[in-house]
Amino acid sequence: MVVLVGVNLLVRPLRIRIDMTDDQQYSLSEPTKKLVGSLDEPLEVTVLLEGKMNASFLNLRDAAVHMADEMRVHGKVKTILPKQAEVEELAKRLKLTPVVIHERAKDGQTVQTRLYPYAVLRYGEKTRVVPLLVNERGRSGEENVNRSIEQLEFAFAEAVSAMKRTETPKIAFLEGHGELAEENVLDVEQQLANYFQVDRGSLTGEDGQLDGYRAVVIADPQRAFSEADKYVLDQYVMRGGRLLWALNGVRFSDDFLVAEGKTPVIAQDLKVQDMLFRYGVRVEPALVQDMQCLPIPVDVSEDPATPNFQPLPWTFAPLLLSSEASPVTTKLGQVSATFCSPVSAVGDEEAIQREVLLATSSHSALTATPAQVDLSDLNPDASRFVHRFIPVAVLMEGVFPSLFAHQMLPEGVSSTIAKRAESEPTRQIVIGAGSVIRNEWQQGQPLPCGFDRYTQMQFANRDFIVNSVLYLTDDEGLIPLRQKSVALRLLNDQNARENRLMIQLLTTLLPLLLLGLVAAVYIPIRKHKFSYTT
Question: Helix axis angle, 30-37 relative to 55-74, nearest 10°?
Fold first, then answer.
């Protein structure tokens, strides 16, 4: 006993912890350990999830507390667990919205509980509220709680990283080429404003004018880029800049489609294909069609006086699949889009790694340009849909060659910086659909990016764009934490109710029976071993 106590006292300062779970649920990743270990001041983590709650929320609360305790092992972290009255007061001061849980009690009555699934992090003079609950439509309560537990480390680490920054990083939305107006990307900009200072502006031909920005977003341009603009963008990439391209390979008219019920579709030449080709991708001048698509309301009545609108599939509005292999898109739902162009890989640059982020389903078709899209043609030939998983968004990482490596300085460029022929290791994302980033308006208010007014369904467009920008600017390696997976292990509620008495008897009496059996065998053996003849 003395030796055992001594060993415990000796190893206690070493903080040795072994996670024996299959999914490493109780372990922090190396980027998080490094981040927490670099804290200059104490970090306070206040978990507000308190009160009477079901088993799922108890698991979420325990996971949040354990996450804070794990962080305390590696840095200056203090965990605070306030009482219910303190939670209510703090939530009121921070204007936090409670989550109302409706559950059925044993007597059949509905019980309503107000919970605050938040953690409040304070570092120095900075405070940040971290939502603990991920509430996604279409998932059960248990699935949402499990998803929340999976995202805890990323949520905590991202909040700590944001509070540690002495300056707010900047990103820019490019203007000057007919890109989407601010009101049409307002939802995404507001989300990105939680992480960055978001600016907008046009290129002036001055080399280096983008160097202060962590990333530049090019949202659905409609006019061609000049050689001077391309040079500024190219050299920004060469110096380690990150670009998010959302552009179409075809030109069409939404207004003409609404007014006439049809629109011509032709190839769109933005004069950047040579640039993208040099970087390793090509936005094809074609249209994607997919059997997995959004419906549109169509009047099927033969009498104009009595319209009869019915939902019919609109194959030019595919619901894109997201890759589970990339931290940008892991565990994302479908992404909606209209009039998409395929994005294909070109060249065999070994220095550039390419990964598909969004693709069509296994029943897709391609329409070459020039073509005409007609709203009356809503019964496509199924035999054409033979293509599988056509890429629509591609991530590129590595060392990119410059388009201007062997060219003279374009006219209109002002530069005092030496031209680079090869980039520093950097990243780009190319999306073959400008509609992915666009938000609509209704009654004077912007709708969430990815919200379909007809079906009233919210798709993952907003999360996809925000994740893309976060990944492009992530130098700490925190985004891969989103891929953490925790196995969902649920009880069979029906079986538990039907066999409640048997389960109670087994869990109560079986241990006693086993103990009695061991005693019945062990005691006679012990008596025989130590018996003696007088």
Answer: 60
Cα three-residue angle 367-369-371, rounded to 5 degrees: 80
pLDDT one-digit tens code per residue, 355-383:
999 999 999 999 999 999 887 777 788 88
Alpha helices in 459-499 (DSSP H): 461-473, 493-498
Sign of the torsion formed by the C-alpha atoms of 43, 44, 49 and 52? positive
Residues 6+ positions from 185 with CB-CB distance below 8 Å: 173, 219, 437, 438, 439, 449
Can you tell me the distance from the alpha carbon of 143 to that of 135, in angstroms, rounded to the nearest whole number?
Answer: 9
104, amino acid identity:
R
Per-residue pLDDT tens digits for 149-177? 888 998 999 899 988 888 889 999 999 99
In angstroms, the CA 376 to CA 379 distance is 9
Helix (H, G, I), strand (E, B) or coil at 329: coil
| Main-chain phi, psi angles of 124, to 5 degrees | 65, -125
**Rounded distance, CA 384 to CA 455, Å?**
27
Return the amino acid letter for 91.
A
Tell me how far apart the alpha carbons of residues 185 and 180 are, in angstroms, rounded to a whole number.
Answer: 7
Short-list 319, 310, 321, CA closest to 378: 310
Question: How confident is the model at residue 512, as a pLDDT?
Answer: 84
| pLDDT for 19 beyond 60 | no
Q: pLDDT: is 13 or 56 the higher one?
A: 56
β-bridge partners, 401: 422
Alpha-carbon span 91 to 126, nearest angstrom: 17
| Model pLDDT, residue 105 | 62
Distances (CA, A) of 89 to 48, 114, 125: 11, 14, 20
- 19: its two tokens: 């996670």
Checking if the pLDDT of 136 tops 80, the result is: no
Q: Is the peptide bond before 370 cis (omega within 30 degrees of 0)?
A: yes
Instruction: Give a three-class secondary structure readout of 101-141.
Output: EEEECCCCCEEEEEECCEEEEEECCEEEEEECCCCCCCCCH
Helix and strand counts by DSSP (H, E) for the chain: 12, 27
Residue among 284, 290, 289, 294 at smallest CA distance from 250: 284
Question: Measured on CA atoms in the order 526, 529, 530, 534, is the torsion positive or negative?
Answer: positive
Structure tokens at 475: 């130098």
Contact call for residues 203 and 176 (beta carbons, < 8 A): yes
State the number of CA atoms in the 13 A half-sphere of 410 facing the CB. Answer: 20
Closest CA to 98 of 50, 58, 146, 145: 50
Count Cβ atoms below 10 Å from residue 378 Cβ, excluding itself: 14
- Read off the pLDDT of residues 240-274 as tens digits, 9 standing for 90 and up: 999 999 999 999 888 888 778 788 999 999 999 99
* Distance between CA atoms of residues 228 and 247, nearest Å: 19
Q: How many angstroms separate the CA atoms of 23 and 68, rounded?
A: 19
What's the pTM? 0.80
Both tokens assigned to 453? 């007014």
